[in-house]
Amino acid sequence: MTETIKHKAFIFDATRCIDCRACMVACSVENNIALNKTRIWLAGEGIMGIYPDLQRGTMVYHCMHCGHPDCLSACPVGAYTKRLDGPVEYDGDKCIGCRYCMNACPFGVPHFDYDKGIIEGAFIDKCSFCLQRVDNGLEPACVATCPTDALEYGERDELLAKAHARIAAHPERYINHVYGEFENGGTSYLILSHVPFNQLGLPTLPETPVNEVSEQVISLTLPAALGIGAVLTVTAVGVSLYNKNKEKASAQKEPEDVK
Amino acid sequence: MKANLTIHPRLRMNISPLVWALLGFMALAGLIALYRYAFGVGAISNLSNSYPWGFWVSFDLFTGIAISSGAFIIAAVIYIFELKEFKPMLRAVLLTALLGYIMEAMALMIELGHPERIWYFFIYQNWTSFLLFIGLYVMIYIAIMAAELSPAVFEKLHWEKSINFMKRLMKPLVIVGAVISILHQGSLGALMLIQPTKLFPLWWTPILPVLFFISAVAVGLGMTIFESSLSSRYFKRGLEVHLLSKLAATIPFILGLYLVVKFFELFYSGDAKFLFNSGTMSVLFWSEILIGVLFPMIWFAFKRNRQSAKGLLVGAVILLFGMILNRFDVSWFAVKHANSITYMPTFMDPATYFPSWSEIAVSIGIFSFGILVFGLAVTYLPVFETEDHAHGPAPETGD
Fold first, then answer.
1. What is the CATH number for A199?
2. B179: distance to nearest CA of chain A, Å?
3. Domain range for residue A77?
4. Mean pLDDT score, B61-81
5. Which of A238, B220, B333, B394 has its CA 20 to 30 A from that of A61?
6. Average pLDDT over residues A66-80
7. Who among A41, A95, A228 is closest to B344 (CB)?
8. Count of domains for chain B
9. Could you tell me if residue B4 is inside a domain?
10. pLDDT per residue over B295-315, tens digit each?
11. Does residue A161 sit in the same domain as residue A249?
12. Is residue A228 part of a domain?
């Protein structure tokens, strides 16, 4: 199979967001989520500046669907999977509720049912990419609802090209950077903004995924285990032989001294 | 001792106030646990979406495992380096560590969202997750320690065949146990490697597992001294000061190595620039270095301090205090979670965390269980003075 798999993505343009929160409602309705546990939240500093120089900085914050997801790397039981066409999926049937993914995610995306007991079942929740819609040729609910096209959905390559074209067309309006193009190893949620990205609540991240060092170190586990085991075994055998020889030697040399 | 088969002793059973207190703490923790199973983790803890891990992870996991490292050290000293004189200490240390691990497993049973799925570690595995490795190490090492400790039970039951079988099995068992334990101590540090953006740079380093291993050796020795001192006081058992002072003599070297590696890494990576200008983080860092490393290093370097029971205990307590602070720093105090400037909705708030009373009560209850089982085990099983029959009384001369 040489055919490249199409990699889907979202793009969010902060200059177009009017903070109407229709995406939150659409998401909750589509996915049957209580509104107090919404998978989308509005982040950012809101209205900034002093009159008359006012700016709105709001962002539709949900799972970034990273290329090398840290939740996936961290999950001990493999409840996360990265689909080849982009979405990061969570499987509640495997989840043991350890919340290591929440620690691992640099965006603080996965959230947990702290109010559910053992019978109801406490699970992690996060944006699911609206797989039930996407797989049937529809756009995710938030994208379909957005009245100003601040949210768009499509092929990641095309969206990236579109983003750069938008910046090139209005360099005075945008910060010359597409957040998510390289951040954390590249994400499937791309962000254009007119205010610094940290004012939208986004962390400053390197281009390598935050799980890189962890995964490098974990690959040393087996060599380390074998190495430590070998050293300890050799030491044990060596000490044992040395002690036996010493005993033998002292027994042969002066047998009458030993009582 | 003759077994008394009448039921009268039960009526005469004398439960001391301390035991009543321990039972009370356990009952309270049990009630809190039931409440948690009914209404969720959030009902008994201040853990939140901003702070998914808190006091339980720092205390029961990070501290509990660190203070359990004495077992593999003493076992290795006796069975790998064949320094048989340390044998009288082995079982008490093993018991402490086994209980430490079991206590940690109990805390997990309350902390996990789905405690009934803990066995999923055996059927679903993601080999890039340090937490998977830690879960497996805990389960394997509990089994190994139970096996290493089983001769105490067999002696009580006079199962000579089993005792001899275990004697032959002991050496390979100790080697496997040491490998698992070393990896486990390192992996605990490695658990935080996935948070380079959250853990403060004074602590985050790719060699965190190495630092955790080195400090765990120091903590294990400190805990061995601490535990021996306490049990000699409460269980009227002789204190092997000459053995403990030999262990204590190695502490300055271990802590010295830790100090060299830690500061070499800080200057090599350039994180040393945070040493003095990071407010609370600098204070925490220097506290753990001064209390956990420098002070015990100097204290145990003096022969006078190593050769008195009081000197040993003081040094060990300070070492433990500093190193436990280190574990809390790495897993809690120095971890800054994404403080998302979310204004709608507000469920990501607050980005601060302080444990609730019930979180601490759960840990106290579990700890009480550990103390109680330790007391029962040393009362009914030959944990102390077991080798004395074979080797005669321990030599009095301190060298």
1. 3.30.70.20
2. 6
3. 8-210
4. 94
5. B333
6. 95
7. A41
8. 1
9. no
10. 999 999 999 999 999 999 999
11. no
12. yes
Q: What is the ipTM of this complex?
A: 0.90
pLDDT of residue B2 exceeding 80, the answer is no
| Residue A16: inside a domain | yes
- Do A141 and A93 sit in the same domain of this protein? yes
What are the pLDDT digits (tens) for B9-44? 444 456 788 899 999 999 999 999 999 999 999 999
Residue A155's H or E segment, with its range, is strand A151-155
**Helix, strand, coil percent values for chain A (each to nearest 5):** 35, 15, 45
Q: What is the spatial distance between Cα B394 and Cα B228, in angstroms, rounded to a whole number? A: 15
Give the bridge partners for B60, in sequence order: none
Coil, strand or helix at A124:
strand
C-alpha–C-alpha distance, residues B337 and A110, integer Å: 13
The tens digit of pLDDT for each residue in B140-151 reads 999 999 999 999
Domain of B183?
18-382
What per-residue confidence (pLDDT) applies to B345? 61
A161 plus A59 within the same structural domain: yes
Instruction: Mark whether A21 and A106 lie in a shared domain.
Output: yes
pLDDT score, position A198: 87
Domain at B305, CATH number: 1.20.1630.10
In a domain, B399, yes or no: no
Say if A237 is an interface residue toward chain B (CB within 8 Å).
no
Q: What is the DSSP letter of A35?
A: G
A176 and A244 both lie in a single domain: no
| B369 lies in some domain | yes
In the prediction, which pLDDT does A44 show? Answer: 84
Nearest to A106 among B127, B197, B341 (CB): B197
Q: What is the pTM of this model?
A: 0.91
Least confident of A28-42, A78-92, B294-308: A28-42
At residue B341, the pLDDT reads: 66
Report, in angstroms and rounded to the nearest whole number, the Rg of chain B calculated over CA atoms. Answer: 22
What does the angle CA B176 – CA B182 – CA B187 come to, to the nearest 5 degrees?
A: 125
Which residues on B lie below 8 Å from A117 (Cβ)?
Answer: 36-40, 43
Classify each residue of B300-318 as buried b or exposed e, where b means 16 or more C-beta atoms within 10 Å of its C-beta: bbeeebbbebebbbebbeb
Please indicate, yes or no, if residue A1 is contained in any of the structural domains: no
For residue B395, tell me if it sits in a domain.
no
- Do A248 and A195 lie in one domain? The reply is no
Per-residue exposure over B120-135, b if at least 16 CB sit within 10 Å of its own CB, e if not: bbeebbbebbbbbbbb
- The answer on A248 and A196 residing in a single domain is no
Q: What is the pLDDT of residue A218?
A: 94
Instruction: Give me the amino acid identity at B116.
Output: E
- Mutation target to probe the B interface, by most B beta carbons within 10 A, among A96, A208, A213, A243 is A96
Verify that A145 and A243 share a domain, yes or no: no
Number of domains in chain A: 2
Chain A residue numbers with beta carbons less than 8 Å from the beta carbon of B140 are none
Chain A: give the shortest CA distance to residue B352, in Å. 14
Max Cα–Cα distance, chain A, nearest Å: 105
